[in-house]
Specification:
Length: 140
Amino acid sequence: MKRPFLSVRGLCFQAGLSALLLFATLAIASGFKTEVSNDGGVMVEVTPAQLATGQAPRFEVQLNTHSVPLEQDLTTVSILRDDKGREYKPLAWDGSPPGGHHRRGTLVFPELSGPVTSVTLTIRDVAGVAARDFTWQITP
């Protein structure tokens, strides 16, 4: 009797493919492009799930690596800036706890103040990379 065999590499490929499909679905649903940073051996993908003036911005974030543990508290290493120079600190991270090589979840920020035309999400100090910037334009 043959037993099914699924390699670790196969599992990683399947998990990566599932994550890619999830982020592609989010990008289509939200109308915003997924931004990617692939530095220091860590791939960080960010897709706005909700991003409009007068609403609390929400970003779907995924971090993947096979070289370093992902120990960051994303509420302390992330900041959102609008085109008027205002800064917003995250209210919550709803996702994977610190640790491991694969994390995903949602960063939630307070409502944007007044009309803005763009925002930049900065995530600092992941795998020795001082800052990763992800920018989106907001249409009124």
